[in-house]
Amino acid sequence: MKREGKQPIYEKREGTPVPEVIVEDIPELRMAMGYISNGDAKEIIDQEAFEIASLAFHRSDARNEIVEQLRRNKPHVGDPEQYIEKVFSILENISQVSVAPDSSWEKRAEILRPRVEALLSYFNPSSDWYHIRKVVALPVDDFVNVQGGRSFQRGSDWIVASHSQNPDNFDHEFLHSFMNQIVDHLASAIGQEKITQLVTMASGKLKEDYGEECPHSIFTEELIRTYNDYVKQKRNPQNVPQQFMEKIDTITQKQFQDALNDDERFVQNLKKLNINNFNEFKERAKEYFDKYEKDELRDILFDLYKNYEETRKRGDIEDFESFLIQNIVNN
Ligand SMILES: [Zn+2]
Fold it and tell me: What distance in angstroms lies between residue 219's CA and the mean position of ligand 1's atoms?
């Protein structure tokens, strides 16, 4: 999906600032990522918490904010002040940051800037609460795999750690810069219970990944993925069940065996359904699909996005947040 160079579809809301987009090394964060990727880091408890804490290293101006983020999002690491000190003591002992990013990264900002503009135009978050002024793409190809990424806030910076070969993942991580807050606002408007109820319709896979005790995260993730993997790419998720079943028909014994070797999650899920071999999998593919892949929430959100586009075109609404709050409860 190429978006580069295209004009945003919609006019931006008056006054919503477009952040600066730059590629920049943040040594403390890359030190943390390097340390984790070297393995054997049991004392850090939680990889993401460790990375968040690293953002306060030699940055006393950011310390309060980082403590607050840990308190709110990472309660399991214990006292955030103590945790930060522990992380600092590890970072103090790392003398060398890994190799500096190569020059190809310099061109990245030019590729990423129009993507940021297009996403902001589409969602149009209000400047009343959206205060990101700088999007920092971290050169981290050594430390993140092509599929996965992470993002962080420090002050008015949104820091994205995503592989250079996967700009769609960059979009995903950038979308978190406002979607997290949109879901906060939604929860205040319609009640946490309604969110919890909607999330029961998400796929078994997603619920397992995020834990059903975190409906907020599941809902945010689902909003982002539905847009980024389907709406933006002009794919219809409502075709997924049929495509899955068609794929089952063409799958070979060898492909099945490869999946068993490479995909721990797949193996676990087969076990839970007591599926023991290729033939049983083929026979019971529909059951597998319904339990782990079927995603009714995604279908609902897809329709919602389509309605948003129509309503926005008519000029009846100017931003996604308002539309979501007004329309999600009808589902
Ligand atoms: Zn995400």
Answer: 10
